[in-house]
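## tool: complex_structure
## caller: assistant
## args:
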Amino acid sequence: DADVTQTPRNRITKTGKRIMLECSQTKGHDRMYWYRQDPGLGLRLIYYSFDVKDINKGEISDGYSVSRQAQAKFSLSLESAIPNQTALYFCATSDTSGSSDTQYFGPGTRLTVL
Amino acid sequence: GNSVTQMEGPVTLSEEAFLTINCTYTATGYPSLFWYVQYPGEGLQLLLKATKADDKGSNKGFEATYRKETTSFHLEKGSVQVSDSAVYFCALRGGAQKLVFGQGTRLTINP
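## result:
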């Protein structure tokens, strides 16, 4: 079974709709991240969380919100989706032990906003 | 601020060719450097990393050396295979374990 899972894998929605993307992990990591991937732009950080009580904005947080419901779950919401939020969204995790600085990525959610 | 610049793709090579994908960075201090690979339909996975100057990261025949003097971390492989076809991302770790990614380079290997 995958260590980092994302649901749904694909979603098509309309402008103005509220959308939630979910991420779960079984790696026991404290830190979780949400990125979006656009062609030619690489991945950009939306939000990150170092534990359940810690939420931080990334470089492109406008139009998004997050919820860290438990150590293993980190959800990304689009309160009112717009077409330029069409992208591939990735969740990632990392831990704080020792010198580890590797991030582990989920398979991604492809979101299309019409 | 921190930034990463990769050579633009797409890159198309024949099997057994030599591969170089250039990556340069701008950062304060001495960041850790990474190459991640994204196979079709999958998330990113770590390919290799280097944490200090002159370190060489290696994995699956790929290598990259952390060059502080040229602020570079170029990815190389001596003989590519069709299975190496993927998108490759160079990244640096800035403060608070935040990764900054390059734009990605799509690599296609033809048999």
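## assistant note: The longest strand of chain A covers residues 42-51. The interface with chain B takes residues 4, 31, 33, 40-45, 48, 50, 56, 58, 90, 92, 94, 99, 101-108 of chain A (CB under 8 Å). Handing back to user.
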